[in-house]
Amino acid sequence: MKLSGNHKLMISGIISLAILVPVLMLVFSSNLPLQKRGQIRIQVVDGYTSKPIKGAIVVIPELNEKYITGSDGKTAQISVDVMKDRQYEKILPQEWGRITILTYFEGYETYALFYAAVRENRLREGPVIFMFPEGSVEEGKPFTVIEAPQPDWVNKLIEKYRPD
User: What residues have CB less than 8 Å from 97, skipping those under 6 apart?
Assistant: First the structure.
């Protein structure tokens, strides 16, 4: 079958687009900043006995995902974006990101950990979540913990603003 001039031109245009579109996507996407990622493996244990809790539900709201702990009380390795706290950007930048960890298990108080540190390209083994049986805290209130900033960063901040 012989193609007319118009058909040859149309096929040539389609081939050009098929080559041009992926090249343009590559060029423009390479100018976008890539989100940095870190990993975390959370362990859930009984707060009194330190025995692992199998089947605890761990939720990371920033990912909108839930994870179930195994017989060792640990989640699988979880990959998360390193979301840095911009509050200190002009004061003393932090080299880690922060996430929220919510933990649920039948018969235990709900546990909420805020500002859990995650470092770029590193696996954090922990934190260890100590869950306590229902009735251990005031009724209707979750067990809430806020993780402190990294000690080396705190020392730098203290020294930076120490009065003469």
Answer: 36, 38, 80, 81, 82, 83, 84, 85, 117, 118, 119, 120
